[in-house]
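User: Hello! I'm new to structural biology and keep hearing that structure can be predicted from sequence alone. Could you demonstrate with ACY2 Aspartoacylase? Please show me the input and the output so I can see what each looks like.

Assistant: Of course. The first part below is the input, the amino acid sequence of ACY2 Aspartoacylase. The second part is the output, the predicted structure written as tokens.
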Amino acid sequence: MSCSCAAGSAPVRRVAIFGGTHGNELSGVLLVKHWQENGAEIQRTGMEVKPFLTNPRAVKKCTRYIDCDLNRVFDPDNLGRTVVEDIPYEVRRAQEINHIFGPKGSDDAYDLIFDLHNTTSNMGGTLILENARDDFTIQMVHYIKSALAPEHCPVLLIEHPSLKYATTRSVAKHPVGKYEK
């Protein structure tokens, strides 16, 4: 992709690649660990690309989560909860992630979070979008699909007019999920 921005929007300068949101989904975990050790292949001039293991305790136990699903707690109530000793691990982790990559909904939030997942569904490699009006992600998806051709890469739009997403990737200005069978 020769341009790092959609017409009329700011350039994408900070990108995070998440793996391990669910600790038993190992493709993203292995890629993130690989890129943490040798990130040359994901670095680009003029951009910060940060591979990040989102739920290390669940990864260590190879379980989906410890106390609750990390991919469902990025809502204002959980992100604003007072940290007390008995707060669920994933809520505390969401607050940490929001602090590092956000705050969610702010100009300071990372430009793009690409969240890598696995699934047992027969959906192959699928990109997940939360907003059909995000010109940057639409252009990026078009580029990815063109680059992968003739491989099949479906795009699933989970947009809902009144739903505010509480996914890990929703911290970014441009959230994208990638699911792989």
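User: So the tokens describe the shape?

Assistant: Right, they're a compact way of writing down the 3D structure. Reading them back into a model, for example: Residues 1-5 have pLDDT under 50 and may be disordered.
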